[in-house]
């Protein structure tokens, strides 16, 4: 199999990527498809097709980045989430499939013409997905990072929901006015001391402000619990994503702020991944 054929290039790439990735075959295919304008069907139907020198050079450039642990989604500048493609830059968290648990929980709670608040929106996946799934909803999305808000705006435009989404910069509730039926947040929740031990794919590529939740990982929940009640409509819900083992601590923080009726939602791995909370 010639090394400059589709199959030859893929095989060599797969072997090199296996040293650093559990998904070497998938990584190699996605990177080749992005460089050489080769579709998945081409890979199956024409494995012996020769690649141009230009395509091979670009593929090698992508491989160098991946071998330095840069995630495929960052190299491609895009990530699929809940069936839609989202633009991704170094300014925003690479959206995680686990956050789809929060989307499923939210969709079960949203009533007609609900108004949503997405705190720490990052690339906008939560607000944009929910507004796209429920065309009669409106929302406000915030983030501390103006660069993240610019990405969220472009993703809202890409998915046709920008006319129903306001974007505001500031810390948690500081830029928020009015009240909402559903307040959502996937906050930074990793204890600061765990950051150095994270996999390089995460530690070196996700923005630190999107990862660290202060010394115990709970700082954002404290800030949100303190102000959420003042911005919640009667019968409204707060829905937060949580990290491993945080369900009890986060429930207690919200209970101290008057929230009851805690429900836990599990991700596909069976771990508690988000909590819904109501007042009273
Ligand atoms: C874990 S990321 C989640 C991003 C996105 N919602 C998602 O699920 O992919 C947390 C986000 O909170 C933002 N953030 C961090 N501290 C903040 C603060 N004090 N106020 C508002 N947003 C903050 C970060 O910039 C980041 O975009």
* SS-derived structural category: alpha/beta
Q: Sum up the overall morphology in one term.
A: elongated
Order of helices and strands: HHHHHEEHEHEHEEHHEHEE
Number of domains: 2
**Structure summary, number of beta strands:** 9
Count helical runs.
11
Mean pLDDT: 96
What CATH calls the topology of the largest domain is Rossmann fold
Largest sheet: 7 strands, mixed
Computed over alpha carbons, the radius of gyration is: 21 Å
What percent of residues adopt helix (DSSP H or I)?
Answer: 25-40%
Q: Which homologous superfamily in CATH is the superfamily of the largest domain?
A: Vaccinia Virus protein VP39
List the helices and strands and how they pair.
Layout: H1 6-17, H2 24-36, H3 40-45, H4 53-67, H5 72-76, E1 78-81, E2 84-87, H6 100-109, E3 115-119, H7 125-133, E4 138-143, H8 146-158, E5 165-169, E6 180-185, H9 200-203, H10 219-228, E7 232-241, H11 247-256, E8 259-266, E9 272-279
Helix pairs in contact: 1-2, 1-4, 2-4, 6-7, 10-11
Residues 92-93, 95, 99, 120-123, 125-126, 142-145, 148, 171-172, 186-188, 209-210 line the site of S-adenosylmethionine.
């Amino acid at each position: 199999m010639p090394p400059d054929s589709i199959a030859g290039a893929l095989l060599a790439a797969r072997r090199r990527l296996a040293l650093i990735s559990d998904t070497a075959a998938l990584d190699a295919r996605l990177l080749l498809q992005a460089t050489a304008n080769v579709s998945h069907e081409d890979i199956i139907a024409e494995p012996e097709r020769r690649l141009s020198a230009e395509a091979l050079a670009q593929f090698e450039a992508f491989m160098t980045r991946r071998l330095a642990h840069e995630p495929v989604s960052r190299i491609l500048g895009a990530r699929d989430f809940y069936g839609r493609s989202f633009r991704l830059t170094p300014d925003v968290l690479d959206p995680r499939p686990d956050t789809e648990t929060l989307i499923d929980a939210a969709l079960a709670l949203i009533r007609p013409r609900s108004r949503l608040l997405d705190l720490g929106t990052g690339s906008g996946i939560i607000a944009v997905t929910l507004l796209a799934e429920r065309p009669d909803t409106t929302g406000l999305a915030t983030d501390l990072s103006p660069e993240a808000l610019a990405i969220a705006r472009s993703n809202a435009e890409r998915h046709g929901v920008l006319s129903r989404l306001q974007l505001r910069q500031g810390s948690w509730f500081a830029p928020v006015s009015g009240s909402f039926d559903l307040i959502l947040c996937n906050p930074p929740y990793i204890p600061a001391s765990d950051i150095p031990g994270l996999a390089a794919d995460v530690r070196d590529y996700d923005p630190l402000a999107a990862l660290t939740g202060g010394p115990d990982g709970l700082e954002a929940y404290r800030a949100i619990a303190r102000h959420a009640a003042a911005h919640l409509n009667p019968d409204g819900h707060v829905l937060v994503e949580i990290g491993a083992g945080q369900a009890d601590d986060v429930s207690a923080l919200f209970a101290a702020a008057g929230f009851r009726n805690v429900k836990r939602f599990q991700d596909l791995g069976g771990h508690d991944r988000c909590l819904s909370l109501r007042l009273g």
